[in-house]
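Page 42, continued from yesterday. The earlier attempt failed because a stray header line got pasted into the input along with the sequence. Redoing it now with the clean sequence only.
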Amino acid sequence: MCGIAGEFVWGDRRADVDAVARMLPALARRGPDADGVWASGRAALGHRRLSILDLSQRAHQPMFDPETGLALVFNGAIYNFRTLRAELERRGHRFFSSGDTEVILKGYAEWGEGVVARLHGMFAFALFDSRTQKILLARDRMGIKPLYLARSGHGIRFASNTQALLDSGGVDPALDPEALHLLFSLHAVVPAPRTVLRGIRKLQPGHYLLIEADGHEHLERYWQLCARRPEQAIDDDEWRERIEAGLRRAVRRRLEVADVPVGVLLSGGLDSSLLVALAVEEGAQDLRTFTVGFEDQPEEKGSEFEFSDPVAERYATDHQRTLIPNSEVLRRLPEAVAAMAEPMFGQDAVAFYLLAEQVSQHVKVVQSGQGADEVFGGYFWYPKMAEERSGDWAERFRKHYFDRDDPEMRELLAAPPPNDLAGEWLRAELAMLETDRADSFIDAVLALDVTTLIVDDPVKRVDNMTMAFGLEARVPFLDHELVETAAAMPPHLKLGDGGKKVLKQIARGRLPDAVLDRPKGYFPVPALKYVRGDFLEFMRDILGSQAARERGIYRPEYVQRLLDAPDQYFTRIQGSKLWHLALLEFWLQTHVDRA
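This time it went through. Structure tokens are written below.
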């Protein structure tokens, strides 16, 4: 796990090595162990390293292979690298390191762009071929690892976060008004290739971008999720067996591919608790687990220790739990926002940030339960969508998910786009799924969530907050083979039994009944949901600042309505609408105004 950066130019220009060097400090926390820059003509590559595999200098990046003329910067983990390495060695390739990075280099030398589809893992990389003068940019199927792009008339820059691109200079920081419509509709999700900034885009998950020496671009989708039942019927027991086998493989892969200890983020819910059980069954020794909790509010408890403690006790883990007072949440909030590559509305971002800080003092790699709710139908809005009968697929979806519909968007934004962009985007995405990739509405909903919405909400949040402390988070529930199996499974095995039915069947007997039979929980940070006291004053100051007034994103009367009664304005999925406004403005002040 690392931070990558670089520039590729065409024509008779040479890459700006200084610009690449300017990007590396913004990536330092992603990779605290080493750094490096490599340049040759039209390409310059930069890297910050977090050492997980092959801890020696042989695995430093940028990695250049003089035999093939290939140079690479890579962020992520390739779980099948040993299998690929063995195949490449049989084909005559010789290796000078023992980790996964060099496998990508040799794999490209053997298979060209076809290497991307052979990689099983989470990754974003840039590979420059000095002989053909081409560059290949690639991102994993589930979008677990980020890759941001900034184009100019004569070249392209790329990095693991937006901060690095802004620091490189010459990037347009203006707001994208269409992206704002998506941001405030989809719970801070701006689907790739857009970001909220006009001058920065991101490579879509499951895609690679090949750019030739003359600047000609080839964007290719190498993976697409299909949510259709197999031709031959499978009974419920066999589905359960397939899911259990796939999850066990996913956990085992993420334990084995590391030359450092691997822990687990244990929230006390079904997903992370099941990871602990399976990790122990797969041979994890002296497993370390970590839980964070916050102060209670009258409406909601702030910790789930009562559920995480019995799991840790049952599996005899080396368990650490941390209670964070509200005063600490507010004091550290600016740090969490500074770690966000894009605005994030989820209240648990600061929770992950503070948890990652604690965990990073003990391990460099953790497994986390993100993705289980989207893959296996765990959220409360999925049954509501399934039961909805009025309207087409898009109307059934937005009625139970959108944070704001288009009429409210026109009350919020001072300069809204002329059309209902979020609604049009949703209708187009669901139409493509309905045509040839989903058997039912709920199949389409879950496929859209796991391939698009999750990427720019919980997955990005976990990556940003853990990497802020040089901590690598691995997400077994988003193993693409497991996701493919689950997508083909009938919806009743997901939505049944209050959600995640098949996971509950797998977990029964492995986990305490109290964990399985409790109502669905969410990472609780009550102070950012029920806004009052110091938190309300913080948001009032942000939205009333001179920078906010001059930026003029929001209509003042809408802002005042929320400030007057913050506890009365929640989204359909229970987010604070006031927090959304304050977070975006604070993010812009932290990143764009500073740049």
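Notes: The first helix runs from residue 17 to 23.
Reminder to self: strip header lines before submitting.
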